[in-house]
């Protein structure tokens, strides 16, 4: 969930007993022996004459990287026919032009027709050149490649099979990449319907079947089949409602409608699926993916080996529950049903969830105790994260109170009219609030987040996908169960889904057709990773909580230490905790300054000095490495400023637009600070810790947003709504409003309906 990155594969264990294929994508990183099959559409150019050199170079680079990490790589390649066609066309054109010049004596050549080239001749002309190209490319990575040409007969002759097997093993032992291809110069035309001949025999009639046969013969861990489509679809790609199949299981063929084969090559997708299932049955995992897309072809092979959700993964192990795609569709349908309920019914669900939190307190705390014990035994969580993971009776009571606030305030959230305009006579326009759609909320070590977010999604009529950290698995499970129990009273159980499959966060962030908004709740690193990984899906949140408190020259002695202590020490791991303390220069070496320092020392807060503060001291604390640091612990930076204007400039330069505070008794100075600081929350004489949905009276929050679009600050129900326009007319057409038409625009503002009144 939290730690995806480009970790070198060499750190992974690369050995396993062959016999069963991998059950999950996440296990593919353990693949030791890998076959990469390059389809004709991948290797050849769009004109089918010549090779796609840039694409081929990228593939060689990826294979070389994996080879140099200790894996055993083999390539089954097409391309000899296309390369040979290019060479033969060139030779024919050259010879024709010479003959024409000799016989006609004319310097200007006439149009020359190129005869149809026989495939076997093209293969014979192209095989040596194709291999020379591979050798040149692999040499750039200090890797040797070797060519092996095979036919179907080589697999039926036992002696030839043993020879082939021995040759391949010897090449792999010497760290050489075998380049295998069907010997198209001599291979006979494929026989119709001869692709599969039972369990133990697969007829080698194309490179798909060759790759499958080779993968099983060599007991490879993974077969990657690259084509010109994203993977296997449930109907021909490009057709209406065609959906990419993430995981394909034996027996699912009936649910797939196959289209035509690719523009080049012998086999279509049906041949690939048959070959893949045969290899899977032989103990080799298979992924079919797109090797031609310019945005992904440069890393498609390494992404697959990393376990990322690329293409279609063939697996023999069906998960017990629904896939995340199915959960997304269930959340979408459930959310729409939820939005159609009466406001009182949605509120009733939330009240029921609040009651369950207190009624089932013992079961919740018992599950949470298991999580805490496992985390402590494994030693994988720092103390601040352990505090976030911990639930208590008081926390559950506070949660229940917050949920009841949400229920009470949700009565007029969905379907509220916020604008009415009379466009013309009998043509009225309304703008009304509606749910955003399906929310994906990703949270770390915060099981209390689950009921809060569930209640806000229910109140706003949104479908919800929840992805919690595995360190809170037991707590999340029971809290999700209680959420579904509450939803069941009005038959909308599916609206809130907990993702328990092995999907990585990066994969979830690519589900742009299922998810409308991503809300991360966790560390700044988590938020940054999600913002980077999200493809086409907006992310609501903040990457950092660098909150400032500015102590003005006119600050009250009584207020300063209380506000600073609460801002820094009440919950230092929170995103709204003080991280940088700005002090007016005139307060240095005053009793107030001494009180601040003494209080921080008593609270055991480690102080880092900013550059200006350090220059005033003979013996200063450790100088801060960066003024843009979120400590998340009992640490803070102190810096000196000359004025409130300089404090504002410092906050704009080094802050994160989260929450910033001024402590002063000068109202004019305070108003200047409040109006000029461009942050989501700006306070006067109050702790940074008030930046919270519950404390704002929102009941709870899905997070704090520092973005400038849609929602900002603590995000409650209002931040989870968008709008739509409703136009009610009576046979109105735009042509009636033309210069000579019979209608005129009025654009009159109409009064809004009173809340609670139909």
Describe this structure in a few short sentences.
With 758 residues, the protein is an alpha/beta fold. Residues 32-290 form the Aspartate/glutamate/uridylate kinase domain.
Query: Largest beta sheet: what is the strand line-up?
Result: 3-4-2-1-5-7-8-6
CATH topology of the largest domain: Carbamate kinase
What is the general shape? globular
In terms of per-residue confidence, which ranges show pLDDT below 50 for 5 or more consecutive residues?
1-16, 190-203, 262-267
Tell me what portion of residues adopts beta-strand conformation. Answer: 15-25%
Indicate the CATH architecture of the largest domain: 3-Layer(aba) Sandwich
Largest sheet: 8 strands, mixed
Oligomeric organization of the protein chains: single chain
Rg over alpha carbons: 33 Å
Look at the helices and sheets and give the structural class: alpha/beta
Q: Tell me the domain tally.
A: 3
Mean pLDDT score, rounded?
Answer: 86
Total count of helical runs of at least 4 residues = 23
Helix coverage percent? 25-40%
Question: What's the N-to-C terminus distance?
Answer: 47 Å
Please count the beta strands (DSSP E, at least 2 residues each).
24
Instruction: Give me the CATH superfamily of the largest domain.
Output: Acetylglutamate kinase-like
